[in-house]
Write a structure and sequence with these properties.
nine-stranded antiparallel sheet; four-stranded parallel sheet; 11 helices
């Protein structure tokens, strides 16, 4: 199996915060980094050795990235198909295209996971928006059956999602009654969509799993995630779940990574439904809910990703301290006020601040995060009291 050693160059498609943190980890290990992104001075470009400013479907730019790189990876799913095909044939892309094709399409993703016998929400493919006639809920409770069902069997409440694209709650609508159907039909008329049974979950959790080109698999501790307006607000580690649920979540993550032949880091979002784990979505890259690993684990998810794609032994993912990760959004401050965050940190003496170098703060835009180390309950109380994120 090919090994990419330090002093060689890693190419990254996508120059956002995930690329930035991947780049910082790679450079600490002795690698050079080249990045392709359409935005000049993007977060990753600010720290990379080579910055290529061009559209993701610019094949000349893709070829330039390949010429600069010994191995290529990516920080997001929606890579141009033609560019991906070229890279597969003409460069070293250890993650390949198979996992990416599955995870970028929600129907394929759900079907693949269900085919492994791992619980997912009941789901149906919508091929005709006019057939979107959902029955009232007739059975109380829920028992995961992890299968595709006929559209006519779907009941309220449920969720319609675009099959491709969409993140942080974009491209989806929760349907609770017939009053929500017109908006759902409008979405389905414009996009290929799937319909999923709404999960009566008690918690949202995630597992970051890494699989190397050598087949080695390691998982990070389970994170408990709290979302606000469909955007991740906090990740709490260790997750406040039973040992049995923790074991089940880790086993599901390993099974998915191994069965799909994933390479690199895979973020797996899950629901806790009663005493069962139900898989929500996959991300074939470092994940927002894994940012806690930078300060709280022996090896970060970003270093682990570099190790995995370069064929190096995977690092120890053990947690060395409890942690709460809190996202900093454009909602919380504008760029002039970012510097004013520092005086608040004494209120959170174990807070480790990570800002992404984005030029413009926008509502819902992730500008950075803070990893706060130590007792989870005390940390959560301190975060609420600080009012930084009010």
């Amino acid at each position: 199996m090919k090994k990419i050693f330090p002093y060689q160059t890693i190419g990254i498609i996508g120059g956002g915060q995930l690329g930035r943190m991947m780049c910082l980890a790679a450079k600490a290990m002795g690698y050079r980094v080249a990045v392709l992104d359409p935005t000049p001075n993007c977060p990753c470009g600010q720290v990379a050795d080579v910055e290529i400013t061009a559209a993701y479907n610019d094949l000349a730019a893709i070829e330039k990235l390949a010429s600069e790189s010994d191995v290529i990876t990516y920080e997001f799913e929606n890579i141009d198909v033609e560019a991906l095909t070229w890279l597969n044939k003409n460069s070293y892309l250890p993650q390949g295209s198979d996992v990416l094709k599955i995870t970028r399409h929600r129907y394929l993703e759900k079907s693949t996971i269900a085919g492994m016998g791992i619980p997912v929400a009941d789901f149906a493919l919508i091929q005709d928006a006019e057939r979107l006639n959902i029955r009232p809920e007739t059975v109380s409770g829920y028992s995961p059956v992890f299968r595709e069902i006929p559209l006519e069997e779907m009941t309220f409440p449920c969720v319609i999602k675009t099959a491709t694209g969409g993140y942080d709650g974009k491209g989806q609508i929760v349907l609770r009654s017939e009053a929500d159907l017109p908006a759902a039909r409008e979405l389905a008329a414009a996009h290929e969509c799937i319909l999923e049974k709404f999960m009566p979950f008690s918690k949202e959790i995630s597992v970051i799993v890494a699989r190397s080109t050598t087949g080695e698999v390691r998982t990070f501790p389970v994170a408990e995630n709290i979302h606000v307006n469909n955007i991740l607000h906090q990740s709490i580690v260790p997750a406040r779940i039973s040992p049995q649920l923790e074991k089940e979540a880790v086993e599901c993550a390993k099974k998915i990574a191994e069965n799909m032949g994933a390479i690199g880091v895979l973020g797996i979002e899950m629901f806790v439904v009663g005493e069962k784990i139900v898989i929500n979505e996959l991300a074939p890259r470092p994940h927002n809910s894994g940012h806690y690993t930078i300060d709280a684990c022996v090896t970060s998810q970003f270093e682990q990703h570099v190790r995995a794609i370069c064929g190096l032994p995977l690092g120890d993912p053990a947690l060395h301290t409890p942690v709460v990760m809190v996202n900093i959004l454009g909602d919380h401050m504008n760029m002039k006020e970012l510097c004013d965050l520092a005086p608040y940190l004494p209120l959170l003496p174990n807070g480790k601040l990570h800002l992404y170098g984005k030029a413009e703060a926008k509502i819902g835009r992730k500008m950075g995060h803070v990893n706060i180390l130590g007792d989870v309950e005390k940390t959560l109380a301190a975060v609420d009291a600080s009012k930084i994120w009010a």
